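re the bet — no i am not wrong, look at it urself. input seq straight from the record:
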Amino acid sequence: MAYIVYDGSFEGFLSVVFHCYQYKITPSDICKDANFQDILFADKETVATDEQRAARVWKAVQKKLHKRNKQLLFKAFLSEETDIELMLYRFIRRLLDSNFSIETDYGDTNVLQLKKLERKVMQEAARMLQFVRFQETKDGIFFAPIEPAYDVLPFVIRHFKNRFADQQWLIYDLKRDYGFFYDLKKAEEVVLSEKSFSTTDGKVDSNFLEEDEVAYQTLWKDYFNSINIKARKNLKLQRQHMPRRYWKFLPEKQ
């Protein structure tokens, strides 16, 4: 039994695909190094990320996919679904080995599952655009904590770069402990070793907040309450459009 371990990145996964093709390996499992548990009598093999090999696999896949599915594999990968690597690997093998399109072959459980995951990931990305709330710090940086169900941060960064191009901001994923910092020129991935905010709800310590930030949050709450019609309150419908797991990040729901 061949167990392939990689660093957890998408490029690392594509490197695994290249490695399996090169050495004609049919893996029993592919998993992130952080998640691997030693299995008795199992052959563990660690594959290092190779950007050139990953690029070759990606290019080969892109040639076989319709333009509407160019990002299918990456989006499904971001779902972090159990066994997502094996699903993607089986899809890629069949895609590259076939002389016809398999993208709409929903009788194939891998194709169907990947399309479902893609839809869920993009729905979560859309919610991020609605429910991100920034807090202004004393050094002029707007900080927003998030905790999405899927790793959608790479898909929303372009929106915020365009929408808030004249402000420095940091959007940080508390669940996955990384974020993107925008310095008015470019957005770079960052990991904070020291945090001046709560790792539970992302609230910045009051000592680091800009003086008017609390006042702005109070005004936003007052506005939210003023447009709320109590007679038409429907918590069930509200939770459908605004899942409860986002509430801890929203000043208007405190």
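see?? The mean pLDDT is 89. told u. also The chain has eight helices and eight strands. so pay up
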